[in-house]
Amino acid sequence: MALDPNENPDKSIHKFESMLKTDDVYFFDAEDFEEIIHHYLNNGKVALGKKAIQFGLQQHPNCIELKLLHVEVLVFEDKFEEANRLLDELQNIDGQNEEIYIQRANIQSKLDNHKEAVRLLQEALELANDSFDIHSLLGMEYLFMDDYEMAKQSFMRCLEYDDRDYSSLYNVVYCFEFMEDFDGAINYLNDYLERNPYCEVAWHQLGKMYFSKQMYNEALASFDFAIISDDSFLGAYFEKAKVLEKLGRYAEAIDCYETTIEIDDPTSHAFLRIGKCHEKLGNDDLAKYYYYNTVHEDPLLDKGWLAITNYYFKKKAYKKALHYINKAINIDGENARYWKKCAEIYAALKNFDEADFAYKQAIDLGNFELETWVKWATVLENTADFNSAEQVLLQGMEFYPEEAVLHYHLALVYLYMGNAPEARKKVKSGMELNADMVTDFKTELLRYKHLSWITVIFANNKKTSTK
Q1: Which residue has the higher pLDDT, 132 or 227?
Q2: Average pLDDT over residues 180-203
Q3: Higher pLDDT pick, 436 / 457
Q4: Whole-angstrom Cα distance, residue 113 to residue 145?
Q5: Of 3, 256, 326, 405, which residue is 20 to 30 A from 43 by alpha carbon distance?
Q6: Is the pLDDT of residue 337 over 50?
Q7: Residues in CB range of 18: below 8 A, 6 or more apart
Q8: DSSP codes, 3-21
Q9: Helices and strands (H and E) in the chain: how many
Q10: 89 and 57 in contact (C-beta within 8 Å)?
Q11: Do residues 430 and 397 make contact, with C-beta atoms less than 8 angstroms apart?
Q12: What is the dihedral of CA 292, 297, 301, 307, to 10 degrees?
């Protein structure tokens, strides 16, 4: 006799496992086997699932549902030929079974043939009475194809069947977000909240959309509603704290971050943000305390070491800053930001050779910021390596041809090299791009007591402009 799953849903599983431990063979209805197999597959216990399929097909050799579960396992194990053969047999028996098309679609999806998978799922959709799962599968296939509009529509259909399907809700918002349609996401979520006013997930997602649009007051209200709906919603407190930081309300942000620590175990990220807030408030000792807590909680969090580095750098404690940036680099030596900061510290320590090396690392790792080119060139000037400084500035101009600062800086390098004609050309091109910056250039010459250069360059430029 079949066991009643409503009476004790685990009873058939316990009975099956008891059978495996003995030589006895117990009888189960096909529905019992389906329940047992689903339990094992859903919990990642594939070997036990296969055992249950084996016993199930021995007792119910003609059961299509058990054979389809066998197909599911074959597909999971990438045994596509065997799965297709079994599906062909099943289709001859029951050609109107939508699960056959779903499993064929799964095979095509795993073969990266997503268009064919979509076609098969649409056929399944025509046969299915309950199409919730098929719309979800269609949504995933459209995501694989980068068709975010169709994916969005599919996941929206899922929410029409079950408005508590938060996985689909996240996917809908993801599609809006990827298409940068933040207004569309906001409108959709507001409509959803009209129907589900106490859905903390929707309020949380709405707040994130407002945050993306820099609508911080609206974002704050949304996260507050998320917290009202669920006062233990960790993500809502964290996002609310980020908004409060943006609004300059650092003390309130600290309260929110501390709440996340009370709700769950402390996280290095929460400690880091609390430290940043205290630093903004001028609470230097507390900032330092939380930065050290950050790296204590997670010694591999390179951002924590960078925060300590920046703290000491601002205090002009360059040797301490160097100690901590080296820790960050040891954790993530491919991070261009860390090498740039390392270069700045070496430059402040007047260790220009090491600064030169660090700037080169930063550039090689993809830091092409304007400031990096200018500061690197300055370091090379301090070592009197004017040829390298010239090359650095010319490289920088490939990225920023319209930035006057590079032209003026290159003019200065040419003067150091004794190449007054090229210096005049660069001053002229700099003035064409930004005439106001010429004052800074003159100040730089005066700082190094090169008054004669001012006279030569600007007298010549005056003659050139007169012509």
Answers
A1: 227
A2: 96
A3: 436
A4: 10
A5: 3
A6: yes
A7: 26
A8: --TTT-TTHHHHHHHHHHT
A9: 27, 0
A10: no
A11: no
A12: -20
Q: What is the rounded distance in angstroms from the CA atom of residue 276 to the CA atom of residue 183? A: 31
Of 429 and 171, the one with more pLDDT:
171
Contact present, 341 and 371 (Cβ < 8 Å): no
Beta-carbon contacts of residue 431 (< 8 Å; ≥ 6 apart): 404, 438, 461
Sequence spans of domains, the chain: 368-467
* Residue 27 backbone dihedrals phi, psi, to 5 degrees: -95, 140
DSSP string of 348-371, one letter each residue: HTT-HHHHHHHHHHHHHTT---HH
Whether this prediction's pTM lies above 0.90 is answered by: no
Pairwise CA distance, residues 309 & 272, whole Å: 13
The amino acid sitting at 86 is: L
What one-letter code names the amino acid at 227? I
Closest CA to 151 of 162, 167, 163, 164: 167
pLDDT (tens digit per residue) in 409-452: 898 898 888 888 888 888 888 888 888 887 777 676 655 545 45
* C-beta of residue 408 within 8 angstroms of C-beta of residue 437: yes
- The pLDDT value recorded for residue 11 is 80
Written as one letter, the residue type at 24 is D
Does the domain formed by 368-467 have CATH 2.60.40.10? no
The proportion of the chain whose per-residue pLDDT surpasses 90, expressed as a percent, equals 61
For the cut 60, the answer to whether the pLDDT of residue 384 exceeds it is: yes
